[in-house]
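Handout, section 4.2: multi-component inputs.
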Amino acid sequence: MAGRVSLLMDTTSAAAAQISLTEKAGAIQSADPRRVLADRVEQLYSQLPLGIAATLIVSAIATVELRAGRFVEVVLFWAGLVVLLTLARIALYWGYRKSVNKFDEAAQWLRWLAISALANGATWGFAGAVFFPSHADEQQVFLAFLLSGMVAGGVPMYAVSWPIYALYAASIAFPFTYVLATFGNRLFAELAVLVPAYLAVNVGIAYRLNQVFDSGYRLRHAYGKLTDDYTALNQRLEQQLVELEEARRQVEASGRKLALFAERSPIAVFEFDPEGRVLNMNPAAETLFGFSSREMIGRPGTDTLFPSDAADESRERWRSLIQSREPVFGLRLTNTRRDSAEIVCEWSLTPLVNPENRVISVIVQGRDITQQLEAERMKQEFTSTLSHELRTPLTSIIGSLQLINSGVLGDVDKDVLELTSIAERNGQRLLDLINDILDVEKIESGKLTLFPEALELGELIAESLILNRGFADRFKVRLATVGDLPAVNVNADRKRLLQVMTNLLSNAAKFSPEGAAVEVTIETTDGNVRVGVSDSGPGIPESFRSRIFGRFAQADMSHARPKGGTGLGLAICKRLLEMMGGKIGYSDRQGGGTTFWFELPRHS
Amino acid sequence: MPAQPLNRICYVEDDEDIQRIVRISLEKVGKMTVEVISDPLLAIERIAAFKPELVMLDWMMPGMDGPTLFRKMRETPEVRDLPVVFITAKASPRELDELRTLGAVGTISKPFSPKDLPGQLRAIWSSLP
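Output:
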């Protein structure tokens, strides 16, 4: 089983590998652009404090350097402007950090940052445009360095979004370029040409950096997604592993249980391979034949199983079993034990088939039924002997009493006649009981043979009424048919169907009040014919209904006169009718009484 | 149907009680002449001497059972053509069928009703060709 589990795991991980391969191809494309944007905005804002600090430091130095001269008010105004803008940028940074919805509002935050970058750049552009012409050469050089430094320093600050950088740098460079171009100095005019070129180069670099950042973020997200997928896959695999482990434990547990069952079972259990060799056997199997498992495992078991057959025949039987893959039950075979004793065994052979519909092995279970068969035979012999030994004296008893009671031997004293009549009736009852017990025995042992023939049902019913008239007279009950009996044929055993009718009629007569009539009806339906026997008796007690067709079934009628009967009649009727393809039942009659009915298929 | 009514009957039976009942039944109820034979080994000789119109055989008897006696009768010219009826307490339908194919004209099951026995025999008698 462990091997099988690991095999399953291998297949699962192979499947996982396949999934990851197909997913990797579209990974970069599949990175969510909104997430990439949000990451870029985050990057820009994370650098904002550094930018603010740099602006403050540089502007402070600039203020100190440029303060000397005639334009101290303008310089202070500019410094104030820088401070105000710095406060606004701090507010912007603060606002971004506090925002709860950075992801969805990323585009908006980007716009605000662009405005702030533009404003920041504009303050430096203002500085260049205003302070360059108004100051002496030294400060002009300082200013030129300062401005180019600011333009260059903006690249790492804003390169994540090149358009923002372009705005920022242009707002510094363009006013300065204008001042240089209009200064009236040839050197400055040449610089005015170089500054835009410098600006263009820087924007170009920013654009390139922007692309690099962009694909960096895309990769990061693609990788993140892959990692998530892997994590999910790993979790799934882990879950499957846990389930497999649990399944393995369960299989192991039920395997142990099964092994224990086989070990302790009184039934012999063999496992044969498809070629008929013994793979395994339990202790009961060792006991059955007297061969130890060491002696039998690996050897052909079919010769032991089918010993009475020729070797070819036993091989053929085995081959047909393997081919059909159908289990065989109740196979009775005469087997030979190690000590040459012959035993009769009952076998069931169950081929185990794998999903590819190939037979892996065959479970062969068997038990020794020799003693059981012997017991059955003895029981039958006993019943048969009993039947003869009981009937012979009863023949004499009933016969003698009948002759006395019939009056052929002359008149008998009235009291004597009464007693001999009682004796005859009870002798008859004893005989009925013996006959019923024999019938039950025959039915149960499958020895009862029916001789079905095409019968005209109406005639048979009429005959049964005549046969039972004498019995009904004793209870002062009339037997009568209701309406015309339709001409309908059934395929049934004449003697046994008469037995059924006798049972139903005598039951009905016994339970009818004096002077009542037992009514017999025949109804035909499409394929069946139904015979009803109705009495006007007390009905069937509720407690008795469930076992009315059982053996030795008699309702507890302690308040009523004893009726006689064996309690086997209805059970026999039910079985006989079933053997003839029919059925029996009963229903309550309106106004009291019961109708017993039976149905038989019509014979065309 | 034979021309004359059934009158002379031989009955081979080992049980004395049943012998007596059958004798009373056939003589008193049926007004027939009855010869009862206890020993099946002597039966053929006695039957031949009595010259009955019909023979009744018990199935189970010590010494020789009814069917064997019946086959022996079929081999003996004097009694070969006599109609034979079996009285039996146990017989499977297959065995009864076999007896009919051998030529038994009827079977009466034990216990029989002595009141009805003469009637049953006369019914069988009247069904003969």
